[in-house]
């Protein structure tokens, strides 16, 4: 009997040990470079990563149905609005980490929790840029977002659905910068300037410019970078025809969004989860993480190591400094404005 007890306690301590060496990661990112990143983390720490991959909506649905029984420790999502939504749903817990606070600028994290911690951290960033036909559009026609609503650009613009999170985020930022009435007038102007009804994703808008269906496209930077790094002749032909503008360099800066993550509300491996997020903010991991999707690192003072991004903005660019959490929070109001101006 005594032997059995000893064996049981040995087993349970072995289990406890095994448990501390694990991490359950729910990820909406699927890049091969991420695999190498996770393998390096396991090699350095001995913490094994069990990954659940899904798209953002799938992860959120899963977390909600699992509730307090969820095995999730770290959740990685794309877009501040989705991170913010998860925070509002109570699916993150706030953590305090000197390393993360030192590495990640405050405007690229959640609003501070009551105890001063953060619910989520931006780990890579993307700019919402304007791609245009070099032959017919002058750089000064597209050097601000405001000009997308200017009559000079009538019939020229290709853009995906107004209520896609990427556009809601851009319009929300514009609204915070200009004020609501002016932003709504601007949105009306953008709708009046569309070359065609919104359809497809960001890459389709860039291709629309190359095909002559429109002259101006709004896109996240990494879609253009992907085309720039492609070996396919048809992609090279697209890239040859277009130029890129980082809008509002003379005012509030180009709109940026993030991909990022936080510790799950019911994390069983909390310390490992924090260690993993801290690892993702280290210089080496930052470059891997950002390059996986041709994005910029968010951590301070890191050299960008991506040929397409360097070619796109050789001297870097001025990005807006308004908190991404405020931009995310403002989105429901923007959706109402879109409905009023008929931006589908
Ligand atoms: Fe995307």
Shape: globular
Q: What integer is the average pLDDT? A: 93
CATH topology of the largest domain: D-Maltodextrin-Binding Protein, domain 2
Give a quick account of the main beta sheet: strands, pairing sense, barrel closure. Answer: 10 strands, mixed
CATH class of the largest domain: Alpha Beta
Bound molecules: fe (iii) ion
Low-confidence regions: 1-19
Which percent range fits the helix content? 40-55%
Number of domains: 2
Query: How many runs of DSSP E, i.e. beta strands?
Result: 10
Strand pairing plus helix content: what structural class? alpha/beta
| Head-to-tail CA distance between termini | 72 Å
CATH superfamily of the largest domain: Periplasmic binding protein-like II
CATH-level-2 architecture of the largest domain: 3-Layer(aba) Sandwich
| Total helical segments | 15
- Strand and helix order: HEHEHEHEHEEHHHEHHEEHHEHHH
Please report which band the strand proportion falls in: under 5%, 5-15%, 15-25%, 25-35%, 35-45% or over 45%.
15-25%
Report on the architecture of this protein.
Helix 2 links the parallel strand 1 (22-27) and strand 2 (48-53). This protein has 15 helices and 10 strands. The longest helix is centred in the first third of the chain and has 19 residues, at 2-20. It has 2 domains: 2-123 and 263-312, Periplasmic binding protein-like II (D-Maltodextrin-Binding Protein, domain 2, 3-Layer(aba) Sandwich); 125-254 and 322-341, D-Maltodextrin-Binding Protein, domain 2 (3-Layer(aba) Sandwich). It has 344 residues and is α/β, with parallel strands linked by helices. Strands 1, 2, 3, 4, 5, 6, 7, 8, 9 and 10 form a 10-stranded mixed β-sheet that branches.
């Amino acid at each position: 009997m005594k032997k059995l007890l000893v064996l049981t306690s040995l087993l349970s301590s072995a289990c406890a040990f095994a448990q501390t060496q694990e991490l359950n990661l729910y990820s909406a990112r699927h890049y091969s470079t991420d695999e190498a990143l996770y393998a390096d983390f396991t090699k350095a720490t001995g913490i094994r990563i069990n990954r659940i991959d899904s798209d953002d909506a799938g992860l959120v649905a899963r977390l909600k149905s699992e509730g307090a029984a969820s095995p999730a420790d770290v959740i990685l999502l794309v877009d501040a609005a989705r991170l913010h939504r998860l925070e509002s749903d109570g699916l993150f817990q706030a953590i305090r980490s000197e390393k993360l606070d030192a590495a990640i600028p405050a405007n690229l994290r959640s609003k501070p929790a009551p105890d001063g911690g953060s619910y989520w951290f931006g780990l890579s960033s993307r700019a919402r840029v304007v791609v245009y036909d070099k032959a017919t559009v002058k750089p000064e026609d597209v050097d601000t977002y405001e000009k997308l609503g200017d009559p000079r650009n009538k019939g020229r613009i290709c853009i995906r659905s107004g209520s896609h999170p990427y556009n809601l985020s851009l319009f929300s930022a514009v609204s915070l910068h200009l004020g609501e009435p002016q932003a709504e007038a601007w949105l009306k102007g953008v709708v009046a300037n569309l070359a065609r009804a919104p359809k497809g994703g960001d890459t389709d808008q860039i291709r629309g410019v190359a095909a002559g269906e429109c002259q101006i496209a709004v896109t996240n930077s990494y879609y253009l970078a992907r085309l720039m790094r492609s070996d396919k002749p048809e992609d090279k032909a697209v890239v040859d025809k277009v130029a890129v503008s980082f809008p509002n360099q003379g005012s509030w800066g180009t709109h940026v969004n993030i991909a990022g993550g936080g510790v799950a509300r019911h994390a069983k491996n909390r310390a490992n989860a924090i260690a993993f997020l801290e690892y993702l903010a280290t210089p080496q991991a930052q470059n891997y993480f950002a390059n996986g999707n041709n994005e910029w690192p968010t951590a301070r003072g890191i050299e960008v190591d991506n040929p397409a991004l360097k070619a796109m903005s050789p001297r870097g660019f001025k990005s807006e400094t308004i908190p991404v959490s405020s931009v995310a929070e403002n989105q429901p109001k923007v959706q109402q404005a879109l409905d009023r101006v008929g931006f589908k």
